[in-house]
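Consider the tokenized backbone below.
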């Protein structure tokens, strides 16, 4: 997740990177909104995001308030 001071985002989202590929996912609802990942990595990101959707929303809200996000456990 990124924050741009003074620039509110209207849709909660996060960026996922794999090698040269980038995908952007909305958090609520959880869906791919831009970009592309290889199919296998896309499934991993979606599974991880589903497990951590609440934490992603909390971090989104923290960033919008100018606070740092809390680290989220990676998919194992």
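A designed sequence for it:
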């Amino acid at each position: 997740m990124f924050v741009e001071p003074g620039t509110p985002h209207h849709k909660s989202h996060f960026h996922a990177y794999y090698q040269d590929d980038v995908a952007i996912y909305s958090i609520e609802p959880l869906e791919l909104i831009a970009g592309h990942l290889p199919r296998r990595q896309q499934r991993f990101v979606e599974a991880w995001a589903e497990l951590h959707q609440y934490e992603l929303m909390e971090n989104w809200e923290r960033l919008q308030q100018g606070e740092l996000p809390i680290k989220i456990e990676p998919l194992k």
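The mean pLDDT is 89.
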